[in-house]
Every structure is written in C-alpha cells, then in structure tokens.
Amino acid sequence: MDWNDGHALGRALRDAYPSGNYVTVSDAELIDLVTALPGFGKTAVPPDAATLMAVRLAWVAAAEGEDDTSPYEGGA
Asked: Where are the domains of the chain?
C-alpha cells in the first residue's frame, strides 16, 4: 500500500485502530498511524493535504459504512 491507496488505507486503519478517533486525529498523527500499518510501503514523499483528506474520509467510510443518509435530513 501507498498514499494512493485511499480505500485500502481506510480499511486498514479501521482494522488496526477500531476505537481510533478519525475525527480529531491531527494530520501528523494520521501520517504516523498510516506509516505504522503493516504492508505500507515506506516513502520519502510526504502526502499533501488532499491525500490526507482522502485517507481520512476513506477511514470514516470504512468505519461507519458508505451510507450517505443523514439523521439530520428531512426533519423538523
């Protein structure tokens, strides 16, 4: 895996850190978590902000499912 494997990284993060708080983790912490994953290929090129956001969103989708419904829609 590398930084371009967003969905795979999201699933790996979900499995490795099932109680991880993907909402409040800093970019630096996210980089540390990803680079510590088994199977992550070490790279000298740090990810850009867009790549980090894609990985973070993939982690959310893997952890909570890809259902895009919201409990806040269509109410009140």
From this structure: 6-64
DSSP string, 50-71: HHHHHHHHHHHHHHH-S----T
pTM, entire model:
0.80
Alpha helices in 1-76 (DSSP H): 6-16, 27-35, 49-64
Helices 49-64 + 6-16 axis angle, to 10: 50
Question: CA–CA separation, 72 vs 6, rounded Å?
Answer: 27
Query: Which CATH architecture best describes the domain 6-64?
Result: Orthogonal Bundle (1.10)
Q: 38-75: per-residue pLDDT in tens?
A: 999 877 678 999 999 999 999 999 998 866 555 545 55
Band (pLDDT 50/70/90 cuts) for residue 7 is very high
